[in-house]
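Let's practice the habit of predicting before peeking. Look at the sequence and jot down your guess about where helices and strands might fall. Then scroll down.
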Amino acid sequence: MKIYISADIEGVAGVVSPAQTVVAGFEYDNARKWMTGEVIAACEGAHEAGAEEIIVSDSHGNGQSLLIDLLPDYVRVVRNWPRPLQMMQGVETEGVAGAFLLGYHTGHHHSEGVLAHTTSGLLYTELRLNGRLASETTISAAIAAHFGIPTIFASGDDAYIRHAKEELGSDIAVVETKRAYGRYSAISLTPVVAQTKIREAAKQAVKELSVFQAKPVQTPITLEADFQRHIPAELMNYLPGITRTGARTIMFQGADMVEVSKLIAFMTSVRFDEQLP
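Done guessing? Here is the structure:
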């Protein structure tokens, strides 16, 4: 049995500031250490419950945040970008039975949650799947479900936990790592306590794997993207199959979540230049 972990940093215990999430920022080295500790705890819990192999996607920033030399030897790691399945690359591996979303956060459209954004806070204001607002959790779980894999564990702040249960079901195993006071403040567990809770919740989630079912998004899937600026919508409208439906909005219909994910990955990776002549 294999378990898949998509690991982000904003929902990790102790992380509250944008500076902690970028390579040159204050406490980034500490934040990536805390992130790695939570991933290790999740791996250990899953392994104790019977997972023989664990695939971890380093899904934050440059995709190279995890201190991989500290990870257990039964782990394989997906690193760097671009990737067609974005934060969920590797979930398509044969034998994966369940997915974890670790260190996640609420979406750009949420009024609560530490460091809330969707995929790229500098690029998008909203993403929608079949007319429904989509966070990174929505997209990640939908990609996993495309391959028949249920999402069985989530961790992050209290606002994120409420969102995860709404998106993934009240039975999902969760760990609240901190309680948000605002966008850039929270009262947090210490890393050691958060890691202990994650290890136990991960173990329980794998033990109860049989109660979870994947819930694929109905196909074909309509993706709508609202950009922060006009130029991305204008340029994306040059491509066949994409319609500009507003000054900053495009629409695309994909056959499935793989097609949708590839387009989001493309848009997120392209450098749109507002200063074009």
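How did you do? The helical segments are 28-48, 136-146, 158-168, 191-207, 230-236, 257-269.
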